[in-house]
Write a structure and sequence with these properties.
The structure is a single chain. The chain is of the alpha/beta class. The protein has 2 domains: 241 residues, Alpha/Beta hydrolase fold, catalytic domain (Rossmann fold, 3-Layer(aba) Sandwich); 154 residues, no CATH class. It is built from 14 helices and 11 strands. The chain has a 9-stranded mixed β-sheet, sandwiched between helices. A two-stranded parallel ribbon has the order 8-9. Helix 5 packs across helix 13 and helix 7 packs antiparallel against helix 9. The protein is globular and about 70 Å long. The two termini are 49 Å apart.
């Protein structure tokens, strides 16, 4: 009996020693070593971190081109890892576009200092440097993008075991919503900023919002009066419009006079989206040059330029296929505008033949149902005058979804620039969910 107890004590002591050595070995590993030890790591490169963090790396991760058919091959996806501490939560950024700016020393997601969190930033597939050598647009889907993000979470949870908070801005916020719906247990909390949830390729809710809900009635009238003046002066301003195109070497998929009309229709959306002030609008008696310069400042025709749009081509593929976009309404300008019908403009002005797929709203509809039923710990932030708020996601009666609108806020609405009571509510909500 004494011998048996001795053997048990010796075994326990040996096991404790092994665990201690293993733990000490784990602690001794640097972050760089831990990242390199993860599966599917293609490369790791040190980058200069924001002063808030202690170190940061650009990590390329192997992702399947099609998660349902791995035999199609793979591509490297860029992930930017900024480290504060292993015992700290993770702010998981689901960027909707290219993410090169995340490599800059100045970049810091606002949730990181609010929550004293690490930052893991994922560049969206087929944007920036995250694409295969040969792109087949059929593989650019919400489902594949969400599976990319899920894979990143699975990998880095081996390093960071505390709470995870997903977030994104605009299309990145949409990406946050889709990822959370498809993989609800990947993160603990989600904070999408100014994230639309559309249900058709050209949503009619946005022009209605611009016509009725942005700013005051007088402010809307001032914006519309300026647009009418731009239309009235079309023949006078066209030489300036054409000259700008030649100087910038712009090329369009429609006649230049039609592009002029589209730039005019885009003006009000852009004006309210980015929070311009009606005080900036020139007097209607101003010179042609002054009117033209302000017109292009707010609604540059570069938006419709083929070359300028190449970096965002993947967005329009997604918008036309699954994400949806906004419509233009020509009725308020029907007496003056030459382009009477804009239906199908997304396909006509932004896409090549190989980029066109039938529209399917199923992912948006599923996300809408998820938010209104089983979603938990989702904080949605919007700007009250942002036209994208026309298609703001809704939580219905689900207490797990909290929606805050910044009064007078544009597409730049964030927690940090909210009025103090709303900011406090946002922070208190996050702390309650996380603690």
């Amino acid at each position: 009996m004494i011998y048996s107890n001795f053997k048990i004590r010796r075994s326990i002591a040996l096991l404790s020693f092994i665990l201690f050595v293993g733990f000490q070995s784990l602690v001794a590993q640097t972050l760089l070593e831990r990242i390199k030890a993860l599966p599917d790591i293609v490369s790791v490169e040190k980058m200069e971190q924001n002063p808030f963090f202690s170190e940061a790396y650009i990590v390329n991760i192997k992702q399947p081109i099609d998660h349902q058919h791995p035999e199609k091959g793979s591509f490297p996806q860029r992930v930017f890892v900024s480290h504060l501490g292993y015992d700290r939560p993770v702010v998981f950024v689901t960027e909707g576009y290219g993410g090169g700016y995340a490599a800059g020393k100045r970049h810091l997601e606002e949730l990181c200092p609010l929550l004293k969190a690490n930052q893991i930033f994922v560049e969206h597939r087929y944007f920036g440097k995250s694409h295969p050598d040969s792109i087949h647009w059929i593989d650019l889907t919400v489902e594949n993008a969400a599976a990319d993000q899920h894979h990143v979470v699975e990998l880095f949870k081996k390093i960071y075991s505390q709470k995870w908070i997903s977030t994104g801005i605009s299309k990145g916020g949409e990406t946050t919503l889709y990822h959370r719906m498809l993989y609800p247990n990947d993160v603990d909390v989600s904070v999408p900023f100014v994230a639309p949830l559309n249900f058709s390729v050209e949503e009619s809710r946005h022009p209605h919002f611009i016509e009725k809900l942005t700013g005051t009635r007088q402010e809307r009238k001032l914006v519309k009066n300026f647009q009418m003046e731009v239309l009235r002066r079309k023949d006078k301003l066209m030489p300036l419009f054409e000259q700008l195109g030649k100087e910038k070497n712009y090329h369009f998929k429609a006649p230049v006079r039609e592009i002029y009309d589209y730039s005019l229709l885009e003006f009000s959306f852009s004006f309210w989206q980015w929070g311009h002030s009606v005080k900036e609008i020139p007097a209607l008696t101003a010179s042609d040059k002054v009117i033209f310069d302000y017109f292009q400042k707010v609604s540059s025709c570069s938006y419709f330029d083929i070359e300028s749009g190449k970096a965002n081509a993947p967005f329009f593929v997604q918008a036309h296929r699954q994400l949806g976009y906004y419509a233009y309404d020509t009725k308020p300008f029907r007496r003056l505008i030459e382009t009477k019908n804009t239906e199908g403009y997304v396909e006509r002005l932004f896409l090549d033949k190989d980029q066109i797929f039938p529209y399917n709203p199923e992912m948006s509809l599923q996300t809408d149902r998820y938010l209104k039923t089983t979603a938990k710990n989702v904080l949605l932030i919007y700007g009250a005058i942002d036209p994208w708020s026309a298609s703001a996601a809704k939580g219905g009666k689900n207490p797990g979804v909290v929606i805050l609108f910044q009064p007078g806020g544009s597409h730049r609405s964030r927690i940090n620039n909210m009025p103090e009571p709303l900011k406090k509510k946002a922070v208190d909500t996050l702390n309650a969910w996380l603690n």
